[in-house]
Structure formats: structure tokens, C-alpha cells
Amino acid sequence: MIKIGVFFGSQSVEHEVSVITALQAIQHLKKLKEYEIIPVFIDKTGDWYTGQELMDIKNFKNIPSLLENCTKVNMVRQGREVVLIPNPVKQFGPVRIERIDIGFPIIHGTFGEDGTIQGIFEMTGLPYVGCDVLAASMTMDKTVCKHVLMANNIPVIEGVWFTTDDWLRESDNLTKKVTKQLTFPVIVKPANMGSSVGVAVAHDVEEFKDAVHFCREFTNRILVERMVEDLMEINISVLGDCEGVEVSACERPLSSNEFLSFEDKYTSGGGSKGSKTGDAPSGGSKASGMASLSRILPADISDAMREEIESIAKRAFLAVDASGVTRLDFIIDKADNTVYLNELNTIPGSLAFYLWEESGKPYVQLLKELIELAFRKARRKDRLQFSNETNILADAKIGGSKGSKN
Amino acid sequence: MYKVLLLMLVWNYTLVKMQFDLHMFQQNSYRNKRYWRWLKGTHNRFVKGNDNFVLFASLFLFAASYTQGLTQSGLTVLSIFFIFFAIRGHRLLVEVREVKKKLVYTPRVKRLVATTSIVSFAIIFGLNQVGAIGIAAGIYLMTTFSFLIVMIAKLVNTPIENYINNWYYKDAKRILAENPNRIIIGITGSYGKTSTKNVIAQTLSRDFNVLATPASYNTLMGVIRTIREQMKPTHQVFIVEMGAREPGDIKEICDLVVPDISIITSIGPQHLETFKTIENIAKTKGEIFEGVKPGGTALVNLADDRIKALPKRSDIDYIGFGDNTQECTDVAKCYISKNTHISGEGTSFDLNFPSGITLCVNTKLLGAHNVSNVLCALTVANELGADMLRIMASLSDIQPTEHRLSLRKGRKGQVIIDDAFNSNPIGSKNALQVLKAMEGDRKFIITPGMIELGDQQDALNKKFGEYIAQACDYVVLVGEKQTLPIQEGLKSAGFDTSNLHITDTFLNGYNHLETIMNENDVMLIENDLPDAFNE
After folding, report:
1. Which of A9, B254, B471, B487 could link A42 by a cystine bridge, Cβ 3.0 to 4.6 Å?
2. What is the CATH number that goes with domain B406-533?
3. Hey, are the CB atoms on A2 and B206 less than 8 Å from each other?
């Protein structure tokens, strides 16, 4: 059996959402008979656990008691395998709990979508699903991502960025910069948090300073963008890697507020009908995550706009060298129909399966392709040479006052 | 006292000699029958003649024991013999160290060393109990016929080896079962199996996780070792090269791996001494088609009549591949190549798929036989449902197997076509074709000729000489006796013998060429024999 480790939870504001997405995915992964699923849950303190009970959503009502029935583990290289070993390692206990053949991180936000866990996979040599370290960390930071997109001629909303230290040093200058380069209202957000945490709208300078103070509680890196007042949001998913990509149907999410808040996205009890195919996991609409949000799917936009969005989405995906399934969130300024790419999510909620089901690709097929992409990524890496075979130190002159210049 | 010392020295000498015996035993695949054949053959220089002085030493000891102690001069003579032993033993050690492929101290060899040491010590000890004649005879036998001890040790160790091998076999079965969806591809053939395997592995590895048995791991134990040391559950394709020394070898491997697709690249007169007739060779290679899983596929090389003539099963599919001079008969469908173009830069051809589409194939591989290899690889890829356009696009990345028409540069920057691994009549002909097509001022070749071709060896080597005369400006032959047929071929084709140089070792010949070649010349290294065949 090929053992696929599904990693979820972690130290993120979207911890619970990740549990939902992961368990949803596991239900469908179980249909692939050639894989055995090894669930690995990372709790909010950063400890890793494994155990069969982790695959039942009901058990997450009482996490402490759930974890008592699980084993605390670490993941390491052992021989030419990657394995879970007990944490702590006991003198007379098993030397390994389980072997893992491929990693599937389903973590939203920090400590999972940002290159951290991808780094562990790279170092242990485990093939894994999704973006590599570079793409994951780059797209996690909205400021850096904006730079890369701009350099690749992808239309983005104008913005000003600074750190909290910058703010403490020269808040007046920065305020002047914002009023000069952008027009009110503006939206102030953390560059590196997910899901609308720490975000506030400002209509004037006073509100702006308050918004920055609010934002500083969550981050050291702040991004201020012109807020598009009369806007339409369109989301689209891109699947693939540098060797080839595919785009899904577009959706238009609906909400009552000015922008989709955390509450909108995840705690709305008023989800329309759940996902179209009725494949909602046990637990009703509240627990079905992005799938239960009000949305128009497929989005009611013109063909021309749809094609423009598809084209920009593909280019953006390739510009950041992503891999796996991503969801790209676009903002359309209804004033002049300009299309802007707002955000790239490299581990989207519910893995955007509902967008692919709309396009005719069932969730199981999506998961199969994600695993194939993971292998493809590993094969690409295996072709490369990362170190020299010769030992340069063998002939070098070692020692001396400061060492040689080279 | 001297007796004990002498016996100790003899034991030591025997052990050193046994290291050499073990080395040759290893090169003969640990098979007593094959080893015995090699011992009787012309390349064994260590049995007769060189150990006769040992006989004299033992006779002297025999005489000495009967005269109840040694006189002063007797002691001197004995000391001289001791010194001879030491020098002789040392020289032997040095010769053993200079070989190309050293004795590898595998766990099996270590077990043999243990057993041979015990057996030889037991003999020495036993001899000590018998009188002087026994000792003298014993010493002579032990040193001259030390290879017998190796053969006895093998028999003694057989139960242990069987137990260990069984355990490894079961372990390999378990590892294979971790991924029952894995596609197993078996390849065999008198020649071409390694290069075909490598081309298939490289072709598929962009779209599949591929594991292939490494070079020369084509025995059952080699396959088991590959599985135990390298296979992961995530490997989706396993390519198994199967070699055969005796009938039943390939069936053995098929029983373990159970191929989904089997390929025979060729059936030719290789290893005729073991198989005796080419019909036996055909039947043994045919075991790979017999071993295919029901519902699987057999790939038939249309250029080889013997492969086409193999008995057909009704529960598997047969697919043919070949060029457009072949007929697509007796098989379900065919992949055909045509318009082949050979150059010093690579090879290209048009591929006609069974569906009717034709695509153009370009590779950097050299030699006409690589057309067949690439054709076979593309057949496999298409049958596995790979994206053919992607595969075609990545063909230019395919590297030649080292020492099989691979390219390198010499010390002066001249081009070297390295075809050093096991040569066969068709391979050597194609190599000369590439040499001819290669751009360069003068064309050189260094070769010891081809071996293991049974009673056709001389005739085939003579033909080889004729082809060489047509392609080369200067020829270096390794081994005067060995290359006589080639020399005949050269002469009969009118080759100017002032451009012929005969040398005793490959290294000397190669160095000679390095001195006379310039940077715009091209050299072909054709076949490089293992140590058991040095003159």
C-alpha cells in the first residue's frame, strides 16, 4: 500500500477550517484503493499527532480527549524511508509508528501554506502535494506576491506597503504617501495572514491610523490598497504545474458586507444548498466550509471577461511557479470593468473541489491528479544535481588566519 | 619444527592463492561447472607449470624427514625454498591486485573465505598426522589444486546460502506486493537488453516513477537486491533486465516479478558454450514470453525470425516492432520505423503508429541499433497510455548508456566513441558505421575482438576484420593469439599492415593511440574484455 500522510490543523487562525477541508478530502481519498491514509494532526501548540480517530470529524468536538487516544509523533528520515517516530522516543518502545510515502499538506495559512512544512518535506526527501517552498512562501506574503505579479505584467490593485517599525519611525510620511498614491477609501491588511484577519477599511486619515493600529496586532508587515468600491469578486481555480495547467469554472461569491469577512467565509449558517453534488461531509452546512457559502457558480460574467480572467490566472500561476490546486481571487472594478488579481491561495478551502465539480472533474479525480503532480514535481527535482560528488575540502588548504577568500 | 613452519607457510601461500581462485570463481558466477570449464580453457595460466617448484620443496621435505633431521647444507636448501615461497606468494598477490575488476568481498565471499580457511587448515592438520609421503603429496595437491578447495567450500556452504537466499526471496515478494498496480516490464535478449532497458527507463521517467535494475544486476539475486535496496511503494514502473547463463534462469526471475510486458531484443549466438545450440538459447529467452501475466503483452522484434517463431500463447497480446522491411504478421499490431538517418550527431527516423499516425523521432543516440531501442521504448510508452507528444519532446534528453556507443574526449581533445561493453556482431558493425559517419580526419579503432560466440567466433571475427578495413585508417588489436581471425579479415580486405599495431594489454594499446592521435581524429573503442581473458 502506498501510504499518504495527510497533514492538517497547525498554528494558524484557520486551524479549524483546515480540519474541515482535510477530513472532507480524506473521505474522498478513501475511494482510491491503492492508498492507505495516515492522518497527521498538528495542534495549536505545534505538536504532531497521528491516529485513526483523527479521521472522524465528530471527535473534534473535544480535542483534548481525542488527542489522548492518539500518538504524539515527529517525522524523520530513517534509512531511505520517511517515518513517524514517537515523541518522545522511548528506550524500549517501537522505533517507528508509521512509514509515509507521500505528503499531502492541507493546512490553511501560517505554518503550512507558507513553505514551512514544505521545507520539512524537502529536507526529508518526501514527495509532496502542492507548491514548493518558494511558491508557497512567496504567495503567502501579499506584498512580495504583488511585486512578482507586477513584474510579470499581471494587473493588481495599487498599494503601499510598510513594516510596523517603518510606521513607528515615520507614520506621518507614510500617511502622506498613502493619501498621495492611493485614493480613499483604502483597505488596510496584514501582508501575511489569511482569511481577512486584521483587515479594516478606512475612509479618511483618522480611520486609516486606527486601521493600522488594529492591523499591527496581527502582523509586522502591512499592506494598504485602494479599495474598489463598486466591486465584483470572481474566483477561479488553476490546477497543474510548470509543465502544464488547467483552469476551472469561475464562481462569484456573494456577501452582504463590503468584503467577505472571516464570519462570512466560515461561520455563516445560511449556506445555500451546500455543494452541488450533495457530497457534503457529515455535520451540515456550517461545517462544509467554502462549499456552503452563497455563490453563483458558474459566475454570471461575459465570455470575454471569463477568457480574460482565465488567461491572467494561468499567467499568474506560472509566474509564481506554483504546483497543485490553487484558487485565484479576482476583483473586478465595475466602474470600468478592470480585472485585478487580488490574491493567490495555494491551499484553498475545500481544495476548491466545488469549482472543479462544476467543470466536470469529480473530487476523486482531482485528488488523483494532485498526487500525480506531486510525483511529477519530485521527478523534476530528482533530475537535478544539488551537490558536487567530489569533496572540495579534500584538496583545500584548511586553516590559516581568516581562511582563503574563496 | 621446520615441518610446522613449512606447513604454516604452505597454508599461507594457499590462502593467498585462494584469493585469486575466489576472484576467478566470482567472475565465473560461483558456478562449479562454469569454473571448471574456465580452468580447462586457454586463459587459465595458474594451474600448470608455475607450481612445480612446490613439488620439489615437498619432495625435499619428504627426503629430509626420512634422513632423521637435516644437515647444515640441508637446512640451507630448505631456507632457500622458504624464501622462494615468500617471493612467489608476494608476486602472486601483486598480480592479483593489478586486475581491472577486483575481488569484491561480498558477504557470500566472506562466508567462502571462512569455509576455505577451515577446510584447508583441516587438510593441513590431517596431513600432519600422516607420514612424510602424505605431507609431501598433500602440500603439492593443496597448492597446485587449491581451486578444488574453493569448489568444495561452495558445496559445503550451499545449505546456508540457500537459507539466506530464500529469506531474501520472500522479502522481495513482500516489497513487490506493496504496490500491486505497478507495471512490471521484463527485458531479455542475447544483446541489446541493457541499452533497450536504459532507453525505456529514460523515456518513461518523465511521466512515471520508474525503477530499473542497475547495470549487470540481471540475475535473480541481482533483481532481489534491487528490490530490497531501491524499490519504493511509489514506484509505478519496474523494468527488469533478465540475463540467462543457463536454461531456467529467466523463468526463475519471471516467477518472482511476474511481468506485465515482456520484450526480447534479439536471439543470437552469445554464450554458445553454455547453451550448446541456438535452439536452446531461443527456448531460454522464450521463457520471458511464457512468464508474462495472463492478459499481458509480449513485444516481438520483427527483425528476428527466431523471436517471431517462438510458440504463441492465446492469453496474452503480441505486438510487433521493426522497420519497414519487416512484415507485420502473426501479431495484433505493429509499430514501424522508416527513413532512418544516421550521423555522428545522432539518429532520426519516422515512426508509424498502429493507429496510422506518423511522427518524426529525433535522438542524440548513435548507431542503427538505437533505432530499434527507441522504437521499442516508444511502443511501450504508447501501450502504457503516456502522452506521446510530451514523450517525443523529451527524447532529445536521452543519454546513451556508458560504454555503449557513448561519446567522450581523449587527452588531446579527440572524439572517442566508447563501445567497450560486450560486443556482438551487429553492434560492432553499427559502431563502425557510426565511426564512418563521424566527422574527423583519421579513424582509429582499438579492439580485442568478440568472444563467447561458440564455433562461429572465428568466422564472425574475420568478417569484423573486413568491416574494420573499410572504415578505419589505423587499427590496434589487443592480444596476438586472440585477434588472429581479425588479422586475417584485415589482410583479405587489403588493409595496409603498417597501420596495424598489435599489443598485449588494452591499456598499452590505448596509451599508444593517445600518443599518435591528433585532436581532429576519432577513435572507436570496441569491446573490452574482463580480466579472465588477459593474455
Report:
1. A9
2. 3.90.190.20
3. no
